[in-house]
Amino acid sequence: KLGNETAKALLGRASWHHLHTLLSRFPANPTPSESSALRAYLHLFQRLYPCGECAAHFGKIMEKFPPQVGSRNAAVGWGCVVHNEVNRSLGKSIYDCAHVDEDYDCGCADGEADGKSKE
Length: 119
Ligand code: FAD
Hints:
Structural class: mainly alpha
Number of helices: 5
Helix content: 55-70%
Shape: globular
Bound molecules: flavin-adenine dinucleotide
CATH superfamily of the domain at 10-91: ERV/ALR sulfhydryl oxidase domain
Order of helices and strands: HHHHH
Strand content: under 5%
Largest sheet: none
Distance between the termini: 44 Å
Mean pLDDT: 92
CATH class of the domain at 10-91: Mainly Alpha
CATH topology of the domain at 10-91: Four Helix Bundle (Hemerythrin (Met), subunit A)
């Protein structure tokens, strides 16, 4: 069995990886329905995050930094900022948001048809 801190860190790394990847695949020009789906998703991600103290802490961060769902760029930037807020509060180093695009290429070789291609 993993120690509590190890398990919490593993959950955190996996969750951040999934979140940043999802944001980097959000449509560049979303429809209102896509934007509202992302907003709802992010609030539920926070509410249902498995580590309760993390969820509570992240809820405060989301009050200060409401989800930006108007475009892929805005969403990616938001994800980087809120992760950096968590980094700051845990005493971790601040990540350079210019690297998000290269770090979260999901390797999904999808065509243009899915509306998620990079442009
Ligand atoms: P992580 O912070 O997990 O980051 C993984 C990798 O992502 C880094 O190595 C880096 O390559 C990249 N990265 C770093 N910063 C950014 C950024 N700003 N944008 C994009 N990529 C980046 N842990 C607690 O102990 N207390 C908490 O209250 C807490 N709250 C959390 C809330 C949420 C919503 C999440 C998802 C996690 C939370 N965690 C919390 C876990 C914590 O954030 C870390 O995931 C965990 O401590 C492991 O840290 P790590 O050093 O491996 O790097």
